[in-house]
Amino acid sequence: MMDRVFFTKGHGTANDFVILSDPDGELELTPALVAALCDRRRGVGGDGVLRVVRAAKHPEGAGQAADAEWFMDYWNSDGSIAEMCGNGVRVFARYLVANRLAAPGAEGLPVATRAGIMLAVVEADTIRVRMSTPKVYAASTATVGILTVPGLAVDCGNPHLVCGLHDGVELAGLDLSTGPAVDRSLFKAGVNVEFVEAAEALDGLDRHVRMRVHERGSGETMSCGTGALAVGAVALREAGLSSGSVAVDVLGGRLVVTCDEQGAWWLAGPAVLVASGEVTVPVPGHQPG
Q1: C or N terminus of the chain, fewer CB within 10 Å?
Q2: Is residue 99 a known part of a binding site?
Q3: Can you list the domains of the chain with their CATH numbers?
């Protein structure tokens, strides 16, 4: 059997998502269906699925329903569930406003996630999101081929390992077609690994870096919002700054991470809706006759 699924496609710095509108939580979303939708040859194609569901109608969002009407149910492209997605929450907010499901509001738009409530400030081209405070909590390493790089583990509501490149190692030369080897005793649920190199100074910004990322459940992606947040936190920490802004260049564009004077952390960047339609996908559990 086959089934039709209505979708919208969106991206933030080329980190792309299949958006499914399911206000009342009626869609039976499964790992197999998510993987089929995200398949770049047989489905719509994407790094993940964003299901738009009212917080009160989702078991993991119900506890946040008093503070946020909408819950971002995010799944990686392999069908695994993730706690948070920084590019995804900006695209999610863009979808809500574009479809008149929520008003942007001067105070920002609250979005419930598995990592807590994020506040999205929707502007014409850019969306700024107040994120969870990143927490640097351990030193570790990542190995790519014969290269082992030291890094810092950062909790952004989901796990990250930020590895700075030095000694002439070039970011562009890394082979991230397979996942870096990491300490599985530290990262029991897997980890997103960011590799970082310094970039030229930019006016008005405290630091400027470039990064590539291998995301658990999705492989190397063009961008990772929470990864940029983790990278920004490490960059400010290494510079001895308690606040400031960091430009993080990813393969798909530029994100800006800011820790303001009040200690709030913000992620800013574009969020674009590119298409809507319907796709026919196999219904999980059924074989063609």
Answers
A1: C
A2: no
A3: 2-128+272-282 (3.10.310.10), 135-262 (3.10.310.10)
